[in-house]
Amino acid sequence: KTPWADGRTFPGTNKNDECPCGSGRKYKLCHGQNED
Prior knowledge:
Shape: globular
Structural class: little secondary structure
Number of strands: 0
Distance between the termini: 19 Å
Radius of gyration: 8 Å
Number of helices: 0
Largest sheet: none
Strand content: under 5%
């Protein structure tokens, strides 16, 4: 299961920053995908 499958987003997070979920991925490659 992918970390972003929970559907959460983190408004105000820069897409190139580390995702606040703690996965260690860039936001755009993690929960940022839920914004599209």
